[in-house]
Design brief:
flat, three-stranded mixed beta sheet, 5 strands
Length: 126
């Protein structure tokens, strides 16, 4: 890396598994960071809207938090139909992406579990 810029990515030549070859994610990693079409602003399209608008990050994060809190409260199940403890919500699901690393996906899984979300999946497993 030079001045915050990715200059080169290569695999580990000593690896008996990859023998130095990169997977598609590894090959595209430089583009994730330096693509000329990478978005740096939060984009939002209102319900029934036809145009994207820019939002500041704080406003977008507040909107997400409000929706999670409202949905969780409206769909919270303390117990199952049989009367067994549930303490969950089926109103929220999460599908993680393969472009995130293991640590990011681990933290997202922990957050979802802490919120009582049981429908958590990852694109890499599908």
């Amino acid at each position: 890396m030079k001045d915050g810029e990715v200059t080169h990515i290569e695999g580990d030549q000593a690896s008996p598994v990859s023998r130095g070859r990169l997977c598609p994610k590894g090959q595209a990693s430089k583009s994730y960071v330096q693509s000329p079409i990478r978005e740096y602003k939060v984009k939002y399209r209102r319900p029934y809207g036809t145009q994207w608008e820019e939002l500041d990050l704080e406003t977008a994060m507040d909107m997400i938090a409000d929706r999670v809190i409202e949905t969780r409260a409206a769909t919270w199940q303390t117990e199952t139909e049989e009367g067994n403890p549930a303490n969950r919500t089926l109103g929220i699901g999460n599908l993680g992406g393969a472009t995130l690393d293991n640590e990011e996906n681990y933290l997202i899984k922990k957050l979802m579990t802490g919120l009582g979300v049981v429908q958590v999946e990852n694109q890499a497993r599908i």
